[in-house]
């Protein structure tokens, strides 16, 4: 039987506010446990929450960023459940009237096709604390610093059909929230966490299968692996005559193990009711107008501009516009160097390769956009060849010079462009390889193109890579064919 996968996501996005959603406690990451949880976060008797206006604004900006409906009146509810890291015994969230309604996110897949993923809604809520299980010898510690941190939970429709689509969508969403500046996007710190709802059904069947939810995936790699593993598990269960149970599951990215956590609750299990301490939030047109005017250039618009302004192809523009820091790095390099194509090639090539190899963010790149632009300038004016440029880049990356000129001077890498010097070098190469010269001249013209590569390689070797490759080719062809 042929099976079809159905995937929907719930994404928790931590809003980049300085204080929590209902209190003035700090949201800064990395503080000592339980030093940033105040009486409001703990739900102590007599305290009252006050809504953080900036959290409201950031949620609205997300809605505007995906062209979604913004609900002019939205209400907070209490979601009641007991868990050790939820000190109040309930979570303040939104159910019936969330701040952001239906919207759409367009994604581009590897094969170049596009797909629309529908957003059902996004609601505001407070985060819970964090349970710590290491070094407690059979016990758990509770850190409540995160309790009360503002979140939007983004809920998609079940529109994705494989792990690739889910990951591409997740990356696009990451790009949107970081471009808007509403989230720092630091997934290792829990700033974005993905809950993946997966089900399978026979190909062609309209009814959805029983779904499971795998919670708290904080990397694209882990999310892809968890989906693939769960799809395989569900198909095996069904084909062996079993039934899928609606449940919440966990996936350990380090070990690759997945396990059941608990049976999946329904909404009525949480006994939602309107929060008596918070009035409805009324969003006026003037606020929407102000926030709309402050919106930055979104990834899709930036991609289109990179294509039209810089002449990039769709694939390169998609990658370069997908991350705000990468887009800024590329654009600075392109404008400073005056060559967008070379800038694109170097950012997508040596820069990203070096960043990935070292686990470094582009904002912390040892080679700045201005340094890269200076390197490109020396390629363009024939001071160095493309091959030598990679040596210069490596030296800059390792801190061996403040700019390309300093490295070129220090290491004596300036390209040889003197015609006489190159001719002398080529004459020596031809004299040392008389048999190859004879073979070349006796070969039919259509084969000579490949054969000349040998002489180019010998000449570049003799010059230690410093000879201008174009001049080498030109002079060689003249001497061999003359």
TrEMBL record:
Its EC number is 6.3.5.-. It is an enzyme of class 6 (ligase). It catalyses: L-glutamyl-tRNA(Gln) + L-glutamine + ATP + H2O = L-glutaminyl-tRNA(Gln) + L-glutamate + ADP + phosphate + H(+); L-aspartyl-tRNA(Asn) + L-glutamine + ATP + H2O = L-asparaginyl-tRNA(Asn) + L-glutamate + ADP + phosphate + 2 H(+). Keywords: ATP-binding, Ligase, Nucleotide-binding, Protein biosynthesis, Transferase. It comes from the Bacteria. GO terms for biological process: glutaminyl-tRNAGln biosynthesis via transamidation; translation. SMART domains: GatB_Yqey. Residues 328-480 form the Asn/Gln amidotransferase domain. GO terms for molecular function: asparaginyl-tRNA synthase (glutamine-hydrolyzing) activity; ATP binding; glutaminyl-tRNA synthase (glutamine-hydrolyzing) activity; transferase activity. Allows the formation of correctly charged Asn-tRNA(Asn) or Gln-tRNA(Gln) through the transamidation of misacylated Asp-tRNA(Asn) or Glu-tRNA(Gln) in organisms which lack either or both of asparaginyl-tRNA or glutaminyl-tRNA synthetases. The reaction takes place in the presence of glutamine and ATP through an activated phospho-Asp-tRNA(Asn) or phospho-Glu-tRNA(Gln). Heterotrimer of A, B and C subunits. Belongs to the GatB/GatE family. GatB subfamily. PANTHER family: GLUTAMYL-TRNA GLN AMIDOTRANSFERASE SUBUNIT B MITOCHONDRIAL AND PROKARYOTIC PET112-RELATED (PTHR11659), GLUTAMYL-TRNA(GLN) AMIDOTRANSFERASE SUBUNIT B, MITOCHONDRIAL (PTHR11659:SF0). This is Aspartyl/glutamyl-tRNA(Asn/Gln) amidotransferase subunit B. It comes from Endozoicomonas numazuensis. The lineage of its organism: Bacteria, Pseudomonadati, Pseudomonadota, Gammaproteobacteria, Oceanospirillales.
